[in-house]
Amino acid sequence: MQALLDVILPVFFVVGLGYAVVWRKVFSTVAVDGLMTYTQNFAIPCLLFMALIKIDLGQAYSFRLMGSYYIGAASGFALGFLGARYIFKRSAEDSVAIGFVSLFSNSVMMGLAITERAYGFDALVANFAIVSLHAPFCYFVGITAMELAKSDGDSIAQVAQNVGKSMMKNALFIAILLGLLVNITDVALPKAFLEGTNMVATTALPAALFGMGGVLYQYRPEGDFGAIAWVVGISLLVHPAIVWSLGQLWDLSISELRSAVLTSAMAPGINCYIFASIYNRAKRVAASGVLIATALSVLTIWCWLQVLP
Q1: What phi and psi values does residue 80 have, to the nearest 5 degrees?
Q2: What are the boundaries of each domain within the chain?
Q3: Over the range 62-75, which residues count as b (16 or more CB within 10 Å of their CB) and which as e?
Q4: Bridge partners for 268 per DSSP
Q5: What is the per-residue pLDDT across 146-191, written as a single tens digit (0 to 9) for each?
Q6: Which one is the CATH code of 2-307: 1.10.260.40, 1.20.1530.20, 1.10.3720.10, 3.40.50.450?
Q7: CA 58 – CA 73 distance, rounded (Å)
Q8: pTM above 0.85, yes or no
Q9: What residues have CB less than 8 Å from 299, skipping those under 6 apart?
């Protein structure tokens, strides 16, 4: 119970505050959109860039850590897609969008915040390693599957070109590439640049959580409850259970296990709705899945914190 009070509730208080001020029209939806644009395109990329230029790549990128997390994530996508296609009889393109909801955990806004509050900033090394591949991996899987689903006879080369163009427009992906490049080459960056970038980075998590609350207010759950329940169950229970099992099997360190399981236990991120909106597919499932899973994750995150050492 103390973990719920000390770790989880402060994070959800910020989310709830954002929800409440938009609900009471103290903060406009236009302002929320602007705040989310700032966090997604500037603050969070700065946070990832600053983390990746300092991280010990040899220590952070272990096969066991990445394998545990991303096998779980890929399994979530497969289960989401297959359930949507064969249980709920959705089209192939709808099924890809629903699979993406089961794949894309809120690894930055919620995952970093919860892990830091539970175990301290030094525990985030494995989180940053996972996050550095999270957006590239998830968007590569989602975009590739969607382009294949709607290819209508396009060549493999054309599909690959479409995937590449979409990836290179993503600010998170660009920040990750730049951070890794600076880390590998050990380039000395100007102090003023680093300090300025770090100032922007420190605003990322609180601003993103606040904005996330405002975004969630705009998406009311309605219809498609079977598909929504399916993706919520995969996101909050199945994905972290697979990661926990693989982490035990591959003997992850306590710090790696905590980071991998907690990241996988986060609700789907807002990017799930953005992805569904880009392709205009399964938007109601994506929006309602994010909203309901975020609310339920208050309880499920507490349960995972009790399971973890």
Answers
A1: -60, -45
A2: 2-307
A3: bebbbbbbbebbbb
A4: 105
A5: 888 877 666 667 666 766 776 677 787 888 889 989 988 988 899 9
A6: 1.20.1530.20
A7: 23
A8: no
A9: none
